[in-house]
Amino acid sequence: MSQELWKSYFNTGLESAKAGMVETAIDYFEWSAKLKQDNQEIFYNLGVSYMTIGKMTDAINAFTKSLKIDDSNSDAYANRAICFSYIDENKKSMKDVKEAVEKLFNVDVTNVNILSVSGKTKVFGRTIGKRKNYKKAYVTLKEGQDIDLGGAS
Prior knowledge:
- The protein is an alpha+beta fold.
- It has helices spanning 2-18, 22-35, 40-52, 56-69, 74-86, 90-105, and strands at residues 109-117, 121-124, 127-130, 134-141.
- A two-stranded antiparallel sheet has the order 1-4. Strands 2-3 form a two-stranded antiparallel ribbon.
- Helix 4 (56-69) packs antiparallel against helix 5 (74-86).
- The protein is globular, with a radius of gyration of 19 Å.
- The model has no long low-confidence stretch (mean pLDDT 91).
């Protein structure tokens, strides 16, 4: 019965998240996680849902639980890096960016730098606006390695 129930909760959580009802999705993912504590996919989706509503520390905890179960999920590392960066934990963010790139592209990363970029000021008619600030990650690979993103010659 509980095997069917956790899967039902999980699928309802996915449908709720797709429909934009993130708080409802969180409830279903949490119920599913209580019944099936060894499923990394539940914790990953719980982390994404927390991240969507801005609860970064809860998202970090969920991603960490997901990675303890299966540490090969590069998306979990990347999303946890975004959460760490959002709360200004740049050292931890750089570590997760490194792990995500290494696992996703199967390369050796020697250095990661994160740069904060200020948003541009724009003029729209009589109105002056400003674009959002954002962060960039610069990754240095081991000598002789590269990442082919498109296969273009």
